[in-house]
Design goal:
Strand content: 5-15%
CATH superfamily: HAD superfamily/HAD-like
Number of domains: 1
Largest sheet: 5 strands, parallel
Number of strands: 5
Order of helices and strands: EHEHEHEHEH
CATH topology: Rossmann fold
Number of helices: 5
Shape: globular
CATH class: Alpha Beta
């Protein structure tokens, strides 16, 4: 089993809240157009370094815009494909996203779901699907719900890192790399 770095998508790997708001019912911060995907500074280099070291890279992202009727799953897939392309072929091992939201207005997605962060469902599913070692894995995200999901999945608290003003994605990746020991 190999270790992974679980990465939030919006405002961790790529810009989201700084972009112009999409038309309602999408909300500010919802990225629904692949043409708007912009990597955050250092994202490509950080992901490439983690990948070279032997980590699996898994994106885990809430996408409640689907439940609100602001985006389709096809749009989320297109944004993810654009992000994968910008990061480099084969850098991301898998994308997991949760299209559910309890206050949605699209009946099929208007509910709570075990994949919706802060629940650990996406991380646990990826760990099972990809044979990942959670004891040696990391979680990097920009919101408290990301950190809570990592903790709920059993990732060590010291390996759940929040990016933002105090820590860049590059710094978080460096921390993971400095503690990496191949099995």
């Amino acid at each position: 089993m190999r270790p992974a770095v679980f990465l939030d998508r919006d405002d961790t790997l790529m810009e989201a809240n700084s972009l112009p708001a999409p038309p309602p019912p999408a909300a500010p911060g919802d990225v629904i157009d692949p043409a708007l995907v912009r990597l955050l500074p250092g994202a490509r280099e950080a992901c490439a370094a983690l990948k070279r070291a032997g980590f699996a890279l898994v994106v885990v992202s809430n996408q409640g815009s689907v439940a609100r009727g602001g985006a389709t799953t096809a749009q989320v897939d297109a944004v993810n494909a654009r992000l994968a392309s910008l990061l480099g072929d084969g850098v991301i091992d898998a994308f997991y996203y949760c299209p559910f939201h309890p206050r949605g207005n699209v009946a099929a997605f208007a509910m709570e779901h075990p994949w919706r962060k802060p629940a650990p469902g996406m991380i646990l599913a990826a760990a099972e699907d990809l044979s990942l070692d959670l004891a040696r894995s990391w979680l990097i995200g920009d919101a408290e719900r990301d950190i809570q999901a990592g903790l709920a999945a059993g990732i060590d608290p010291s390996r759940c890192l929040r990016v933002g003003p105090a820590m860049s994605l590059s710094q978080a990746a460096q921390r993971a790399l400095s503690h990496f020991h191949p099995a």
